[in-house]
């Protein structure tokens, strides 16, 4: 046993514990790498060096080839031409297993976790430590995972069922999985798209810590403020090519403008502002006492009461998992356990079937894969899903359908503009454009379709008419240009007399677009704030913290 230091004597230095993180970083080099999918060239002769000890940001328009570039770096895809090298040696075979063996791990845009497993089981899945006799050494795995969490600054309840974790926790779990496999290079595809600003800051704190340990970190993102605040090096891709790769120091004072111009190859689009709200605008969407009980009887949505007027854009802010998903599902008629009243221009929706509800509300759910798209169906089919029966009788048929699809593709700039492609083959941002195009163009077409009349506020109707757009995370994963198009369409919907409810983790988006911001916490509306409020005010309401 060591004797305690004598009074007044300095304590002897504590020997530094070796970090449980794998040592050093893996240098990844892409040397004139190309990759096509059929006739589509996703990455074209791209060269890039991802150096250890630095955080690299990869940015660019939707469909520019960023995810493909990351997958090539992690052996998920093999290049058609060119070479991927890890620590100077070619990555052969180009498989995820070989990349992992060489210290490269990837966290995908859509998580790859088994929901019914414990978090710890997901950490060891595929590389389970086995005791003599064949039993899995969960105690050993827990100790190793715990040490890694501490070293990387991650907090994850390892004994929780994975499906009960928040999105932020699942994201951390994916990172822990990669570290557990000894990764020295971590490549993350749009990791912050699903995170609140606070969670995103915490993620970058972890990534910066890994960089300090000498790891290589690369992040694909659409959020330019993150690039400016956290990245050491930025690479811009356009149409499959690397068009710029440079350190982030030395930008002019307008770094965001410079990055936007590099991404778009031209001037950024003008910002969309909220349209004026007429003083006498009538109530269009009224929600009274909307409640959703969970399977265990707990209230996921707890008596939500709010009114959105015709022409108003109302925002909903909140830490993810505080009832936002249930609110959207209940409004869409998808929550059998929902109780309460929802009326559209005075007509109670529960008395109408799902088709009538769909004609009256355009809804975008937060998880486009689970609730928005048929990935194995064509882009065209996805763009008009649920709409064809609602077309006026004289306007049905193949030509009308093709015209509707073409209009939606053009209006929202879906790339490639080919209705026959499978939705699952489009880049994430272009998939997002499809779900937003379908919802918004249904209730607020750019120009009224054949036989359609634009909704005007006020008059009494027998059946519910187009009344509202409910949009959860409408610009998640889309580039600057596409976000401007979507914001423009939201403003048009409001000008056409619809009530618009935007649920978003992007507070800047809410403050710019909305006339009022509701804050949700534990299934309730806990505050209603003006758009001029600060992030701090919204943050305090989100967390239930009283003002000092
Ligand atoms: N599995 C696939 N099959 C067919 N085409 C694909 C496939 N994966 C990607 N592509 C195409 O390759 C191009 C680049 O896609 P990628 O996902 O790399 O873009 P991205 O820059 O990551 O876009 P986003 O920001 O929207 O996620 C797109 O045109 C896309 O449609």
TrEMBL record:
List the keywords (alphabetical): ATP-binding, Nucleotide-binding
**CDD domains recorded for this chain?**
ABC_Carb_Monos_I, ABC_Carb_Monos_II
Q: Does the keyword Nucleotide-binding apply?
A: yes
List, alphabetically, the SMART domains matched: AAA (SM00382)
The ABC transporter domain covers which part of the protein?
Answer: 28-264, 285-547
**Source species:** Sorangium atrum
Instruction: Give a single Pfam family match.
Output: ABC_tran
Q: Say yes or no: keyword ATP-binding present.
A: yes
> What's a Gene Ontology MF term here?
ATP binding
Its domain of life reads: Bacteria
Q: Which InterPro entries has this protein been placed in?
A: AAA+_ATPase, ABC_carbohydrate_import_ATPase, ABC_transporter-like_ATP-bd, ABC_transporter-like_CS, P-loop_NTPase
Q: Entry's PANTHER family?
A: CARBOHYDRATE TRANSPORT ATP-BINDING PROTEIN MG119-RELATED (PTHR43790), GUANOSINE IMPORT ATP-BINDING PROTEIN NUPO (PTHR43790:SF4)
**Matching Gene3D superfamilies, A to Z?**
P-loop containing nucleotide triphosphate hydrolases
List the protein's name: ATP-binding cassette domain-containing protein
């Amino acid at each position: 046993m060591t004797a305690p230091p004598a009074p007044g004597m300095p304590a002897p230095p504590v020997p530094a514990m070796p970090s449980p993180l794998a040592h050093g970083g893996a240098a990844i080099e892409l040397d004139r790498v190309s990759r096509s999918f059929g006739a589509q060239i996703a990455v074209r002769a791209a060269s890039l060096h991802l150096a250890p000890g630095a955080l690299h940001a990869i940015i660019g328009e939707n469909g520019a080839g960023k995810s493909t570039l990351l997958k090539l770096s992690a052996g998920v895809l093999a290049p058609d031409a060119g070479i991927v090298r890890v620590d100077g040696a070619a990555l052969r075979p180009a498989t995820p297993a070989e990349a992992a063996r060489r210290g490269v791990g990837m966290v995908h845009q859509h998580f790859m976790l088994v929901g019914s497993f414990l978090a710890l089981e997901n950490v060891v899945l595929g590389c389970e430590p086995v005791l003599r006799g064949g039993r899995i050494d969960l105690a050993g795995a827990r100790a190793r995972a715990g040490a890694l969490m501490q070293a990387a600054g991650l907090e994850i309840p390892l004994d929780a069922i994975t499906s009960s974790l928040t999105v932020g926790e699942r994201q951390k779990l994916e990172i822990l999985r990669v570290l557990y496999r000894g990764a020295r290079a971590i490549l993350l595809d749009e990791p912050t798209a699903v995170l609140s600003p606070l969670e995103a800051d915490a993620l970058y704190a972890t990534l910066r810590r890994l960089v300090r340990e000498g790891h290589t970190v690369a992040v694909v993102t659409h959020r330019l403020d993150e690039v400016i605040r956290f990245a050491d090096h930025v690479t811009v891709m356009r149409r499959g090519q690397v068009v710029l790769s440079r350190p982030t120091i030395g930008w002019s004072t307008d770094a965001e403008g410079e990055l936007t111009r590099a991404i778009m190859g031209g001037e950024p689009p003008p910002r969309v502002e909220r349209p004026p709200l007429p003083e006498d605008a009538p109530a269009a969407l009224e929600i009274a006492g909307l409640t959703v009980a969970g399977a265990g009887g707990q209230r996921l949505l707890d008596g939500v009461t709010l009114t959105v007027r015709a022409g108003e854009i109302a925002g909903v802010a909140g830490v993810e998992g505080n009832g936002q998903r249930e609110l959207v599902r209940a409004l869409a008629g998808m929550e059998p356990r929902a109780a309460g009243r929802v009326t559209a221009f005075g007509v109670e929706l529960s008395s109408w079937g799902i088709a009538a509800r769909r004609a009256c509300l355009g809804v975008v759910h937060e998880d486009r894969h689970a609730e928005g798209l048929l990935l194995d169906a064509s882009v065209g089919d996805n763009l008009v899903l649920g709409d064809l029966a609602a077309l006026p009788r004289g306007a049905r048929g193949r030509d009308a359908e093709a015209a509707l699809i073409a209009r939606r593709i053009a209006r929202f700039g879906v790339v490639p503009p080919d209705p026959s492609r499978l939705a699952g083959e489009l880049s994430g941002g272009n998939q997002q454009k499809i779900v937003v195009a379908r919802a918004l163009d249904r209730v607020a077409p750019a120009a009224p379709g054949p036989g359609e009349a634009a909704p005007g506020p006020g008059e009494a109707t027998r059946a519910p008419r187009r009344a509202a757009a409910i949009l959860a995370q409408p610009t998640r994963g889309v580039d600057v240009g596409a976000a401007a198009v979507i914001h423009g369409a939201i403003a048009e919907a409001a000008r056409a007399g619809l009530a618009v409810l935007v649920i978003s983790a992007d507070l800047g988006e809410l403050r710019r677009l909305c006339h009022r911001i509701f804050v949700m916490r534990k299934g309730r509306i806990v505050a209603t704030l003006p758009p001029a409020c600060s992030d701090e005010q919204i943050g305090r309401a989100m967390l239930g913290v009283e003002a000092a």
